[in-house]
Amino acid sequence: MTASPAVAARVEAEVQKLRRYFDRIEHCHVVIIAPGHRHRQRQYAVHLELAVPGCVLAVRQEPAGTATRLADKPTGRDEAHR
């Protein structure tokens, strides 16, 4: 499902905040997962992949609350993008 303009603008604003601290971000991929329509509480899962020179960082925030760092690995020319 495509993000609404409001959600896309909010994600872009948050990425721009990150760029204030580190302006060499190569790419940023954000996935926001909404619960099914029958859930009473709107708790979203957020997955973020951020590439900087020499490293790809991935973080997952689940509705339960705490963020989990999935990957913090160096990248190399011979390594395929996952």
Please supply descriptive tags for the structure shown above.
single chain; disordered C terminus; alpha+beta; four-stranded antiparallel sheet; 82 residues
SSE blueprint:
Layout lengths: L4 H17 L5 E7 L11 E8 L2 E7 L5 E8 L8
Antiparallel strand pairs: 1-2, 2-3, 3-4
Give a quick rundown of the structure.
The protein has 82 residues and is of the alpha+beta class.
Q: Tell me the helix content.
A: 10-25%
- Poorly predicted runs are 77-82
Question: Count of helices?
Answer: 1
Mean pLDDT: 78
SSE series: HEEEE
Rounded to the nearest angstrom, the distance between the terminal CA atoms is 22 Å
Care to count the β-strands?
A: 4
Shape: globular
Strand content: 35-45%
The description of the largest β-sheet is: 4 strands, antiparallel
Structural class: alpha+beta
Radius of gyration: 15 Å
Strand arrangement, major sheet: 1-2-3-4
